[in-house]
Structure formats: structure tokens, C-alpha cells
Write a structure and sequence with these properties.
35% of the residues lie in helices and 20% in strands. It is an alpha+beta fold. Strands 15-12-14-13-17-18-16 form a seven-stranded antiparallel beta sheet, with helices on both faces. Strands 5-6-10-8-9 form a five-stranded antiparallel beta sheet, with helices on both faces. It has a four-stranded mixed beta sheet with strand order 1-2-4-3. Helix 1 runs antiparallel to helix 2 and helix 9 crosses helix 12. The longest helix has 18 residues. It is globular. The two termini are 29 Å apart. The relative contact order is 0.12. The mean pLDDT is 94. GO terms for molecular function: catalytic activity; FAD binding. InterPro entries: FAD-bd_oxidored_4_C, FAD-bd_PCMH, FAD-bd_PCMH-like_sf, FAD-bd_PCMH_sub1, FAD-bd_PCMH_sub2, FAD-linked_Oxase-like_C, FAD-oxidored/transferase_4, Oxid_FAD_bind_N. Keywords: FAD, Flavoprotein.
Amino acid sequence: MSHLDDLRLAVGEPHVLTGIDAAPYLTDWRERYSGRALAVVRPGSTDEVAAVVRACAAAGVPIVPQGGNTGLCGGATPDESGHAVVLSLQRLNRVRSIDPDNDTMVVEAGCVLQTVQEAAHGAGRLFPLSLGAEGSCTIGGNLSTNAGGTQVLRYGTMRELTLGLEVVTAQGDVWHGLRGLRKDNTGYDLRDLFIGSEGTLGIITAATLKLYPLPVARCTALLALASIEDAIGMLSRARHDFGASLTGFELMSGDCLASVVRCFPQQRLPFEGEAAALPWYALLELSDSESETHARERFETVLGEAIESGCVKDAVIAGSVAQSNALWHLRESIPLAEKALGKAIKHDVSIPVSRMTDFVRDTNHALQQAFPGIRNVVFGHLGDGNLHYNVAPGEGWTDASLLARQDDVFALVHDSVHAVGGSISAEHGVGQLKRDALVRYKEPVELALMRSVKQALDPLGIMNPGKVLAVTSR
């Protein structure tokens, strides 16, 4: 019996896709990476995932786990060899349980993030992870890259939002670790080892997630700013005055928002005059547990003081849920506008907030010196220091000519990140995009420890090979 026959036996013939049926799974969302696969396999349960892994381990066939296929670093795309099996988890899409008293929910890895948010809301609770792809990305993908999104400032990344995991190991065994405990010091923290590992150590099939009380009120404002220094000053003021109620602080360059308005004329920047042409904007959100009136009064007082001091040039406060959604839609449309205007070279970096001004100023200048005419597309989660610092085609550049210099652009930007004590990957993962750069920026001891973990948990090297760590000869 062939390996494909084994896979059909494990999950059912309709769920082993080849040829044209497999094509949608073989190219990433940005259309930057394409590969080939022996088959795309769609298990419908944890037991079926385990059976697929055991079959692949016995045959020495690599496995590429895939969720919603919305990743930005090629982490869920197979290589060109055609030897791997793409293991799609989209059929593992059940919300298994919700425990309001324990403020937890157990969901399968193929659950779409928006579905999880809605299920939590239906139980009178909040699951706070929020990001632009929430209508299509899956919890398994969020876990694999330790996703952060727009509310990390208050709630943390997926590591902080996860209490337990269910994982299929590289040998096809199942670790039943779905404990809803906030304290469990009974050994090594395996949960955090698998989160962020991009499917290179095992396959997450379900997770126990933390829930929170629904906020009584939310206030949202778009701030017009003269500089990043002013944005950082406003962030410090908001942290001091709002404390834990501050849930979001997003930084966006004026060029980013101009691109959104140009690409999507139905959207508009809600400022006029000088405030409509400033270089920086910030989206600030407060979640209050007392009342709408209390939240609004605090919000208006703090923003009024910030305007009087000159820290903020102007502000638009949303007066309704619809207006709040419109302001967030501006922020969430930046990647879509960026894609519509050309293929950018993306950098998802972490920078100490205190070094953000120096980093942006010096790196912008260095890029213009080295690549005259390129466009900087700068936006991100200023509250936690996560900047999406992208380089797009400008005057004299085409998609092809810019991508031909990708390695040079990466080296310049990543060297600048490293120089200010930052990280070259904040929330998008490493995948194959940044895999080779790790050698340049991580200490040899750190890389050796990572390889030791990989060897211990995946001795056959079949779990998402070529992602995060380069494949080494045996």
C-alpha cells in the first residue's frame, strides 16, 4: 500500500487532495512563496492528525502544518521538492467548551479567530486577541507565531492568553495538556515551548484560552501628531492616566493613511487643514469597567490636556460604535492598501519604545541613501514596541527591481534593529523569510539550544523542515 493510501485510510479519501484541488494551499497569502506537495491532507480530529503524523513518520515524509494560510513569512508553504504533505487543520474548527466561572474556553486549532471572539462574546466574555486577518486566520496559526495584534498593551500575546495545549508530537503521540490552570509548576513549561515554534516541534490541535469580562464602555480616538517623540509622550501620558484601561495605542505614518484613502475612496481621514497633513497619527483606545459616562469623561479630560500642552495637535473622538469601527478600519486597511500599491519588503520588528525615534529617523535616512526613491510604510503597535517597518516601491522602482534588492534591504534594516537592542521578528514569526538571518543576530549558544530542542522533539526532522531553523545535514 502506498503512502497516499495510508493517508486516505487515516482521514478518508475526500480529504486527501492532489493536483488542482491542492493548489490553493500551496501559495501564501502575499503570493511571495509557492511550493509543491505530495498531497494536502485535511484531518477532522486530533486522532486523525496523530494517524497522519504516524504514517508520515514511518515513511519519512515531511509535514507542513497550515491554518488559515494568512502568514507573512512563508511558514506554512511547502518547498519546491514536492515531497512534503501539507496538513491543513481547517476541519478542526470546534469550540469544545466555555467555562465562564473559570474564564476559559477550549477551542480547536482550526477555529477562525473571529469565531472564537464571537463565541466568547456570546458567553458574556471577551477573548481579546484582535488583528487584521481575524476573519480568516486560525487559532493554530496565531499560536504558531505567538500572535500579538492590537491589544497586547493590555492583554499580552498568545502566550499570555493561553493556559493549556493539546499537541500531536512528531512521533504521532498526543499530549493532553488542556489544563485551565493559572498556576501549575509541575515541571518544564512545554506550553510556551510549542507556542511560537511554527509547527517545527509538533502540531497544536487545541488550546485552552483565557477569557476576560466584557468592558462596559470603550472610547476610541484618532490623534494627529507632529512627531514620533510626541506619540511616545502621549503614550506615557495615557499609561499614567488610564493605567490598565489603556488597551490600544497604534502608530501610523501620514503616508500610510494617505495610501488607504487613495486606494479606498470610501474611507476618509477625519481631519481638515493642518491636521490632515501631519506626518504621524495614533489610534488610542480605552476600555472602561465602570460606565460610558466615566470612560468618556476620563478620555476627554486626558486628550484635552494633551492638546493644550501641544503634545497632540488635534483629536477626533468616536461618538458611536460605527465611528469607532471606521477609525479602526483606517488602521486595518493599511496592509490592504500596501498590497494594492505593490509588493513591499516587510519588516515586523520589536524596538524599545525609548529608541523608536532614533531607529525610524536613522533607518529612513540610511535607506534613502542606499535606495533613493523607495517609500517607507511605517505603522504598528507603539504600545508594545512592535513596528511594521516596510519598504515599498517608490519613484524609479518596480516590484521586481525592489525585490531584487531584498537581501540588501533586510540587512540594512535588521542591522539597525539589532543596533538598538531590538528583535527582527515580533509577531509574524520567522518562517523561511527570516530563517537565515537568525544566524546573524542570535548568539551561537542560543541557536545551539534551539537545535538541541528541535533534535530532541523531532529527531527525524519531519516537522515543517526549513522553517525557523535551516535544515542541517545528518
